[in-house]
Design goal:
This protein is an alpha/beta fold and 390 residues long. Helices cover 30% and strands 17% of the residues.
């Protein structure tokens, strides 16, 4: 029960080779300044993953690489992992997939690279390794590094996903410029945002597509003054992360305008890593009421709704085809929210295959094989299906 409740919110190694630290590609996407450190690898060390990965003959390293803040354009350093498949690279180099992980939390100890399973994200990595892909997994800015984590800030997430590709190519020189991204939940927002930035910030790389599973593309409908706010329990557990993320761009945010009672009294517990202190979190069941996570006033509801709308996707046309999947039983990121985002993206001219999978919940593992197959088809040159307008 504990693990099921908390998961519903989320959403052997070799020594590293010599690493090139020269990347002089530039970006023309304002307000981000050109930076020579994008994808530069500052540190690398062996990473011990699961026995399954070790048995496949793949190698893995944990890295610290250069990226860019989507908030103010400054240079940042981000941790992550890079996996290299066994065998000889194909002509043109290994294709590469950049993975966007689901919600783990907002503090340093929530970084996927601190876990042999990447807190479960290894399930997205293994299918690609087995098929001969290099895989990069960004921890995202502020998880595992001193900066705070700008939770659900799409530009930062996009830059981290793209620069993880550059970093992987520095770690594994036999890697192609052709890349795709696959993300889940929080990472689904990151992969979608990366698709929108691939032509500009991703200059010098060849983007083939993005698969976005249960993406947090637009969660602004979660709070509105137009109707009474009654968050589901998974949505209540997500709210502290959302508030902390928004506070980085809106320092005037007062969390007591949005949480009170048992939530306010246990705020430190509720901002700990998603799956940590599970027993304590389960102890709040029955103590938390819907009123504990309602905006204090209609003005407070309108304010946070506007802030969330500002970071909602789509923001611009994607640079390549996308695959978007929702579960019809998702009680965290409602499927109709994502369907509306897809309709807007289709109106902008995007090529999207959209699937609403009956009976599945948030970030359902049953959707992963289809997403992996979709990504492989894009590398193989198969024309991308398009359900827009259907």
């Amino acid at each position: 029960m504990a693990s099921a409740l908390l998961v519903s919110v989320a959403c052997g190694s070799d020594a590293s080779p010599d690493i090139s630290v020269t990347d002089t590609e530039t970006s023309t996407n304002p307000p981000v300044e050109s930076s020579a450190q994008r994808g530069v690898v500052f540190d690398s060390q062996p990473f011990t993953s699961t026995a399954e990965v070790a048995a496949s003959g793949a190698s893995a390293v944990k890295i610290l690489y250069g990226s860019t803040s989507g908030i103010d354009g400054r240079e940042t350093q981000v941790s992550g992992t890079v996996f290299t498949p066994a065998g000889t690279p194909p002509e043109g180099g290994w294709p590469i997939v950049s993975i966007g992980h689901g919600t783990t939390g907002i503090s340093d100890d929530c970084a996927p690279s601190t876990s042999p399973t990447l807190f479960g994200t290894i399930g997205l990595v293994a299918p690609f390794l087995d098929s001969g892909y290099v895989v990069a997994v960004s921890d995202f800015e502020g998880l595992g590094t001193p900066d705070p984590h700008p939770y659900l800030q799409p530009d930062t997430a996009a830059f981290n996903v793209i620069d993880a590709v550059r970093a992987a190519r520095n770690v594994v020189p036999d890697t192609s410029t052709r890349w795709a991204t696959l993300g889940l939940s929080q990472g689904g927002q990151a992969s979608w945002a990366a698709a929108e930035e691939a032509d500009t910030y991703g200059d010098g790389l060849e983007f083939v597509g993005a698969a976005n599973l249960s993406p947090a593309a637009d969660i602004s409908p979660i709070i509105s003054s137009d109707s009474e706010v009654n968050l589901s329990l998974p949505q209540q557990l997500l709210l502290p992360y959302v508030l902390e993320g928004l506070s980085l761009t809106h320092p005037d945010l007062e969390r007591t305008d949005y949480v009170r009672g048992a939530f306010e009294q246990n705020y430190e517990l509720l901002t700990s890593c998603l799956t940590s202190r599970a027993t304590e979190k389960l102890g709040l069941v029955g103590k938390v009421t819907p009123a504990d996570t309602r905006p204090a006033t209609a003005e407070d509801a309108d304010r946070i709704h506007a802030w969330l709308s500002d970071v909602a996707l789509p923001r611009q046309r994607a640079s390549g085809p996308m695959y978007v999947v929702v579960g019809t039983n998702d009680n965290l990121i409602r499927p109709e929210w994502t369907e509306a985002a897809v309709e807007r993206a289709c109106a902008d001219g995007d090529v999207i295959e959209f699937q609403a999978r009956a009976g599945e919940g948030h970030a359902d593992g049953a959707a992963v094989p289809g997403a992996v197959a979709w990504v492989k088809d894009r590398f193989a040159g198969v024309p991308a299906p398009n359900t827009c307008g259907s």
